[in-house]
Write a structure and sequence with these properties.
Elements (H helix, E strand, L loop, with lengths): L4 E7 L7 E6 L8 H11 L3 E7 L4 E5 L4 E2 L3 H11 L3 E3 L4 E7 L2 E7 L7 E4 L3 H5 L10 E8 L4 E7 L13 H11 L3 E5 L3 E7 L4 E10 L2
Parallel strand pairs: 2-3, 9-10, 11-12
Antiparallel strand pairs: 1-2, 1-14, 3-4, 4-5, 6-7, 7-8, 8-14, 10-11, 12-13, 13-14
Helix pairs in contact: 2-4
């Protein structure tokens, strides 16, 4: 069995919630994309990261069904684990930094896969949503406190690969921040926390707490 770590990314202040991420620290043990895809499907996490160069931060990201050129929460988790100033993804170079209890990355909205950002009138409406059938990748959100930038969100990948709802998703938060043009404090899923902040020249920072689960 290939060795891998399990991180929990975008945890709450108490260390709970967050989204599980598989990380294969030595990507050389599984160089073929087909093998990596099969392994990601076997693990069943929303995403699995293969580290191809830990010093340079070169990573390769997979869902259970496809390879991604960029994804938010895998980059936040990998940046924390590798403690490097940047990550190299097929989409581009992702800036990374640690700030106290938070791990941050800096990326661009055009790197994120397409998402349907669907606004609702209240947080209660978002809470009550059923899981939609496979199809669109939907990020359902509503303001909890507009003045404070607090948002309630849920994410429905619609991929039909066994992940009906993502507990915490950085790429969707990146797109929403780019669209709204302001810093956000997002509560997603059952209680995960995602922080974002727009930066000059089209960049967006995404931050959250990361814990090593096993």
């Amino acid at each position: 069995m290939t060795d891998y770590d399990v991180l929990r990314v975008f945890c709450s202040a108490g260390g709970g919630y967050g989204n599980e991420l598989g990380v294969v620290r030595d990507g050389s043990v599984m160089p073929e994309r087909s093998d990596r895809q099969a392994f990601a499907a076997k693990l069943g996490f929303s995403e699995t990261v293969f580290v191809d160069d830990p010093e340079r931060g070169i990573i390769d990201i997979y869902t259970p069904s496809t390879r991604l050129p960029f994804a938010g929460y895998p980059c936040v988790g990998a940046a924390w684990l590798l403690d490097v100033p940047e990550l190299v993804t097929p989409a581009g170079v992702v800036g990374a930094r640690q700030d106290g209890e938070f791990s941050w990355i800096e990326a661009r909205a055009e790197w994120a896969p397409p998402r349907t950002l669907r606004q609702y009138g209240t947080a209660a409406e978002v809470d009550e949503l059923p899981v939609p059938p496979p199809g669109e990748w939907i990020y359902a959100w509503a303001w909890e406190d507009g003045a404070a930038g607090r948002i309630r969100a849920r994410a429905f990948p619609g991929r039909g690969d066994g992940i009906d709802e993502d507990e915490a998703t950085g790429a969707a938060a990146l797109l929403l921040t780019d669209q709204l043009g302001r810093a956000l404090n997002i509560t997603q899923g059952t209680g995960s926390q995602i922080l974002t902040a727009p930066q000059p020249e089209g960049w967006v920072e995404i931050g959250g707490r990361v814990f090593l689960e096993r």
